Amino acid sequence: MADSAPEHEVAQLRERLEDWNYQYYVLDEPSVPDAEYDRCLRRLIELETAHPELLSTDSPSQRVGGQAQTEFRQVAHELPMLSLDNAFNEQELRDFNRRVLERLKYPADTQLEFACEPKLDGIAVSLLYRNGLLERGATRGDGSTGEDITHNVRTVPSIPLRLRGSGYPELLEVRGEIYMTQDGFESLNQRARERGDKPFVNPRNAAAGSLRQLDARLTAERPLQMCCYSVGVFQGGSMPERHSDILDLLHSWGLRINTESRVVSGIDACDAYYRELADKRADLPYDIDGIVYKVNDLALQKQLGFVSRAPRWAVARKFPAQEEITRLLAVEFQVGRTGAITPVARLEPVFVGGVTVSNATLHNSDEIERLGVQIGDTVIVRRAGDVIPQVVSVVQDRRPADAKPVVFPKVCPVCASVVEREADQAVWRCLGGLVCAAQQKAAIWHFASRRAMDIDGLGDKLIEQLVDRQILQSVADLYRLDRDTLIGLERMGEKSADNLLAAIEASKETTLERFIFSLGIREVGEATARNLAQHFGSWEALAAASEEAFLEVSDIGPVVADHLRQFFDDNSIMGVVAQLREHGVHWPDIELRAAADLPLVDQTWVVTGTLEAMSRADAKARLQALGAKVAGSVSAKTSTVVAGPGAGSKLTRARELEIEVIDEAEFLLRLQRYGGGP
Q: Which residues of the sequence carry a binding annotation for NAD(+) (predicted)?
């Protein structure tokens, strides 16, 4: 007699997975992160393996995806669109390689050739071409039956309506992933917020919703792309015998393939490729959640065959989950240097995106209301690359009976001053200004930071002491500090005091752009500060400029122009600036040049990868100050590409077009040569 405990758990897991499948694939409203789904599916497979009498054909472990939506015409796939088994660590990847070699009866040290491709986080689709013309597009659906989305895929610019060249089969099924870039996703959500619509949770969710529009005109407005990864059925022709050659052939016919794809030999090279892509993952313009490895030889693929739900010749090694599930313990409110009040979620620690996360941003009161989040809720947290973790949704069916609403403060949590929200803004701000210790501390820390006045040794703990003891009330007070005052502070010895005073003295010699940035003007970062300095040349010209004059500066719009004019019209702020100059803070004026005289005028540059000496925004500002146009993609019109470590598809494209590529060292030399600074 079967043990009732595993039978009960199997029934529960199946019901839960089917519910999540329905919410994800049918309703397009995912309720749990992929990591939670994967855990439950793996547990179900473990139980069914240990208790084969419990296995049934309707189990989620025997299906590929969710039930097809009924709003679209059903499409039966002639060749099932299967999913892939997953490897969650290096050992599981090596186990996959071992099983492949054992099934092929090859020696254990055989170096098989694998085709490696980033696993795009999008929607799997099938494209059917007859005599080179696009005839049908379909979703994967449940693997056997999908939905006819021909009217929608025709709107995707990267899907050719007619194949290029010649030599393609009379009937060709191309399989790939439709996805949305991060920039496209942000743009789509910004438009949604402006209309008062609910923004999408993530790019995959946005792509799925776009493909399920009955009106193709709506889909056409969405920034979708498609990348091919294989072929299905084909008739009236032949295909190469290696997977990588098939992809190259598809590319020659006008279909997009991933430029990060690579062919390697042996499992060690597979692991090295995984680590390389993991390092550059945050810099890719699209989301990937792992790497797909396929035995490259199609004859070997055929020999290896399939299990019920996946091919034996391929596996997906997953990256650490970027979304995880945890519990919201409390919400605290932090005050920034501009008075903005930000709610911060205190979480039950959870491992996500490669690190343990215990805090996440809730952005503002509108976001709290949109999420409907309450203290005690089970929430989904997302972390991508170096981005600050954020709460993206609430698992409503796990809300405890004692959950409490999040109450936004009526007064500043630091100084009890009035808080105010501008009519067109989502942010509440403390109006205490320099009366608010939190704003004082944040403003001083920003002023002293490395990319501003660069006062080494002035950390946040020291600033906290100086403000709490009312020694510092503005940044100008830094230049009144003396040795005796500093030595009297906690953990401040004579040598540390001397070093700090020397750093404060050295900071008096700066540049106009650094000084502008150090003042913490709302929405004026390093790039905007550099543009202002290069445009006006002197502090006097900048301070006297009108809003109309600010609008003439590159990358400055009406909102920033208004912030600037308000800043320079504030007598108390201008008084602090006057004190700084009286204390000896100085900088050279910048010689202004006519646009036609700028050395890079009419040139288009692209910056890609990671730069060590500056941010990409700073590099862009420096190039613009020299007259260059800075683009986000490489084309035949690109003059030069600056490629730092981690440069990916843009670097590959530049080499294909034989465009000049320089590294960061050469870039810095050219900036000096052109007069754009070190």
A: 34-38, 83-84, 117, 140, 177, 294, 318
